[in-house]
Design a protein that fits this description.
Length: about 425
């Protein structure tokens, strides 16, 4: 029986890697201590950018309650704001995957410690650890699946990722409060040991920091094949590799071709005025070409003084304005600034009785499949002179995949709120 017990994961002798120890775990933990709050804050900003308090169609988490305490009206300046915050959120999340996996590997013996609960305080710590590990895996897995456009979890990504983030971050804060002081002391002791013994081998110097008893240190370790410093370099190299193969989708020029792991991050898809990234095609959205033809399509604009119907030729006869704006999506990819041209949203509001400050607007699309067939924009977004009902881009007519016959383009708004294939706009008529 004793021999059998020694072969179980609950036995200290079962875990024989010489890499595990407080120093290795502490370095990884301190990296996550910086990275995870950045992920959380940029994720909250992404949610705020959807203006969920404006209209039910924008709100993918209607039962958020007090978790929406921080929401604010999303600004239109700087125009690259969402491109930056969401690019950081997704790219940093991908880059931290090797660090997270290495951190979980380094502490896995503690998951099998017996007895599982030694006191009330220990029980609370174990519960927080369970929420932390489960929350971390859930958030990273769902995030990666959404970025790769292969989301397979039941239910909508938005509420699952939103509520999961709050559970994960609450557990993260509790764990950080308990473990950060010890992690800092461990890293400092390691630094001091290296100063006292500058000629010591990496593994020997690492053991100096582990002299105090620690349940992560193997009592009978196997012979090392790599030093802990080398292992940390490998983890860092993995993170840099993910960074290098995903960050390019947020930049312009040759760097975009380096985004090998991003569905929209490679070279520009085609040439000509419309040769830049898209998310959903006209075919995917269920757009019937017969509905978008010059003879059939009419834009319905409703407001204070009634309703007007405008053909595309009518819109082209109105005063045209230009704006250089990117498109940035929740999956973390973005385009370069594109030269859009069309009618200002505030000019369309003036057609239906809003000559002064324009109100919010509810936008409806011809789209039949997929989410965000409808979207709402705040008054500050409508009033911005760069907010357009775009009819052309980069000197050419919009292609069907880019929203022909007309699409919304608004500074700093998430891509899904830049509605394509617009059919109706109702100013001041939000529910």
């Amino acid at each position: 029986m004793r021999d059998l017990a020694s072969r179980l994961p609950s036995s200290p002798g079962f875990w024989r890697s010489p890499l595990r120890g407080p120093r290795f775990t502490s370095v990884l933990g301190l990296v996550l201590l910086v990275g995870v709050p950045v992920l959380f804050v940029t994720g909250l900003l992404s949610y705020a950018a959807y203006n969920p308090g404006l209209s039910p169609v924008n709100d993918k988490t209607p039962d958020k309650g007090i978790l929406g305490f921080y929401l604010f009206s999303w600004p239109t300046d700087p125009t690259w704001l969402y491109r930056l915050t969401q690019g950081v959120h997704v790219t940093l999340g991908l880059a931290l995957i090797p660090v997270l996996l290495a951190k979980l590997w380094s502490v896995v013996p503690r998951l099998f410690t017996l007895p599982p609960v030694r006191s009330l305080a220990h029980a609370l710590e174990r519960i927080s650890l369970l929420l932390l590990v489960g929350g971390a895996l859930f958030e990273f897995v769902t995030g990666v699946l959404n970025v790769q456009l292969d989301y397979v979890f039941p239910g909508s990504f938005y509420p699952l990722h939103f509520y999961g983030a709050w559970v994960f971050f609450a557990a993260f804060l509790a764990h950080a409060a308990l473990k950060t002081p010890a992690a800092v002391r461990t890293v400092r002791s390691m630094r001091d040991a290296r100063r006292r013994h500058p000629d010591a081998a990496d593994q020997a110097a690492d053991q100096t920091a582990d002299q105090a008893a620690d349940d992560l240190v193997a009592p009978a370790p196997d012979a090392p094949t790599v030093s802990r410093r080398g292992a940390l370099w490998e983890v860092g190299g993995g993170s840099l590799l993910l960074l290098a193969t995903s960050a390019g989708r947020s930049f312009d020029g040759p760097l975009r071709s380096t985004a090998l792991l991003a569905p929209h991050g490679g070279a520009e898809p085609g040439g000509g005025p419309n040769g830049f990234q898209i998310n959903k095609t006209a075919a995917y959205a269920g757009i019937d070409p017969a509905e978008t033809g010059e003879e059939a399509w009419r834009l319905v604009v409703a407001g204070r003084t009634g309703t007007v119907r405008l053909a595309r030729a009518d819109l082209l006869r109105m005063r045209q304005h230009g704006a250089a704006l990117p498109i940035a999506c929740v999956e973390g990819w973005s385009t370069a600034d594109q030269a859009w041209r069309g009618v200002r949203l505030r000019d369309l509001a003036a057609l239906v009785g809003f000559d002064g400050d324009p109100p919010d607007v509810f936008v409806e699309s011809l789209q039949r499949a997929g989410s965000f067939r409808h979207g709402a924009l705040r008054a500050n977004q409508v009033a911005d002179p760069r907010s357009l009902l775009a009819l052309s881009v980069n000197g050419g007519t919009l292609s069907p995949d880019h929203g022909y016959p007309a699409r919304i383009i608004v500074p700093a708004a998430p891509g899904v709120l830049n509605t394509k294939w617009v059919a109706r706009m109702t100013f001041g008529g939000l529910a």
